[in-house]
Every structure is written in structure tokens, then in C-alpha cells.
């Protein structure tokens, strides 16, 4: 993974907040809402997109809408020096949504989705069969209490107090 993206300034944070509130907002609407020149908004959006500061739109699609009702986290222990190969093999599996390298007993945390319990079994067996994988442990996600969010961080970056919930 490349080095992290550059840091957002307060204006960028306000722009991303406005875009998060209304993803279909036009550049003109954003510029009016934020009190910025249209060219400024357009240039900042282009920089944010090209710099990798904005996640792809597909990350907003819920897997349940595609028939994947089960979500699980699989921790994976990998043989020494096999991390890159295992990560690449996991990236080739459509049901793998995220792969994160960890410190500690497990080497990778893999977020997967499945249609049902049998599909999850098939998927975990497929992960375990990958060359370089020593051991896996699967935990079924039962309920999400906090969805992925960055709004409190954007509020802080924009100079606002994060809303306490």
C-alpha cells in the first residue's frame, strides 16, 4: 500500500462533509453552499480525487443489496515471507471486501461476505487452501452498531466540535 494521502485542510474537510451529505451535489451547488469560487471547488475536488483522498463510489453499495447477507471477519496466519502472495490471492476473490495487515498473532484481517452459511463455509475453506496460509479463524458479524464513518473526523478537521452521539 502506498504512503497515506495528504492531509485535508479545514476547507477540504467542509467540502467533503457537504459532498457526503449530498453526493450528487454539483460543483456550483457546493461552491454556493460553502461560499467558495466554483473554480476553487472544482480544483479541490480534482485534487482530492486524483490524490486518493476520496474512496470509490462503490464503497457505498451494501453487499446485502447484491444478495450477500452474511458478513464475517477472517483472521489469517501466513507463513513467513508469504504475505504479499496471500494478499494477492485474497484480492482475486470477489467475496473479499477488505484485507488489512495486522501486528500480533494473526497476520491479516479479511472482511468477507457470503450468501449463506454454506457459502461462508466454501469461502473459508478456499482461504485456508491458499498456498502460504497456515491457519484461519472466522468470526461471523452479527450486528453493526457503528457504520463506517469519518464525519466526526471531518468536523474536527473543519474546526467544528465532533457531535457526540
From TrEMBL:
GO MF, one example: sequence-specific DNA binding
Occurrences of domain HTH asnC-type (ranges): 8-69
GO biological processes: response to amino acid
Source domain of life: Bacteria
GO cellular component: cytosol
Keywords (A to Z) from UniProt: DNA-binding, Transcription, Transcription regulation
Protein name per its UniProtKB record: Transcriptional regulator, AsnC family
Amino acid at each position: 500500500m502506498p504512503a497515506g494521502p495528504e492531509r485535508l485542510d479545514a476547507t477540504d474537510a467542509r467540502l467533503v462533509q457537504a459532498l457526503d451529505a449530498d453526493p450528487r451535489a454539483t460543483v456550483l451547488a457546493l461552491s454556493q453552499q460553502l461560499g467558495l469560487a466554483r473554480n476553487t471547488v472544482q480544483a479541490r475536488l480534482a485534487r482530492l480525487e486524483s490524490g486518493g483522498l476520496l474512496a470509490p463510489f462503490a464503497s457505498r453499495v451494501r453487499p446485502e443489496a447484491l444478495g450477500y447477507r452474511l458478513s464475517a471477519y477472517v483472521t489469517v496466519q501466513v507463513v513467513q515471507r508469504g504475505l504479499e502472495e496471500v494478499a494477492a490471492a485474497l484480492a482475486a476473490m470477489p467475496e473479499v471486501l477488505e484485507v488489512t495487515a495486522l501486528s500480533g498473532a494473526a497476520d491479516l484481517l479479511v472482511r468477507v461476505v457470503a450468501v449463506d452459511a454454506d457459502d461462508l463455509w466454501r469461502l473459508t475453506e478456499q482461504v485456508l487452501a491458499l498456498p502460504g496460509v497456515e491457519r484461519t479463524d472466522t468470526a461471523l458479524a452479527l450486528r453493526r452498531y457503528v457504520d463506517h464513518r469519518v464525519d466526526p473526523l471531518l468536523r474536527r478537521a473543519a474546526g467544528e466540535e465532533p457531535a457526540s452521539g
